[in-house]
């Protein structure tokens, strides 16, 4: 964009350097070819009307170009500033994340130092429910002489009606 803004006014100023006369010829394939020099005996002269801007128009074009360059520069500065702010925010986010990880690790290490490096498995030896109120104690689960209750035979079903 900036390149275009700089080149556009220069092309307006360079219009004076172009020739006012062009020659039109046909090549071997019959296509029209334009040149600033005669390209053969069949060359036709094509007169061009070149608009030459006045000094006021050139100054106005230069002013607009300078204004466009200033706007482009301001936009580029804003983009650079936004990128820097985004980069700083990302860095702060990752630094805070790293600090959180380090705090959690320090807490785990402190817990390990308080309890020792070994872990203990603690089993709850209480029964899952309170004993019955009539004073009968539930059987101990590790006794081998206890057998599960016998299965009842299935109840007889009434016969199905015959199918048609």
What does this structure look like?
With 164 residues, the chain is mostly helical. The protein has 2 helices and 3 strands, in the order H-E-E-E-H. It has helices at 2-13, 55-115, and strands at 21-26, 32-35, 44-47. The protein has a 3-stranded antiparallel β-sheet, with no helix packed on it. The longest helix has 61 residues, at 55-115. 0% of the residues are buried. Residues 15-19 have low confidence and may be disordered.
Key words describing this protein structure:
mainly alpha; DUF4124 domain-containing protein; DUF4124; 164 residues; 45% helix; plasmid
Brief rundown of the structure:
With about 160 residues, the chain is mainly alpha-helical. It has helices at about 1-15, 55-115, and strands spanning about 20-25, 30-35, 45. Among the domains are: about 1-50, no CATH class; about 55-115.
Q: What low-confidence regions span 5 or more consecutive residues with pLDDT below 50?
A: 15-19
> How many E strands?
3
State which percent range the strand residues make up.
5-15%
Mean of all residue-level pLDDT scores: 80
Structural class by secondary-structure content:
mainly alpha
- Supply the number of helical segments: 2
Cα-atom radius of gyration: 48 Å
User: How far is the first residue's CA from the last residue's CA?
Assistant: 89 Å
- Give the biggest beta sheet: 3 strands, antiparallel
Overall, the morphology is: elongated
Helix content: 40-55%
Pattern of helices and strands: HEEEH
Major beta sheet, strand line-up: 2-1-3
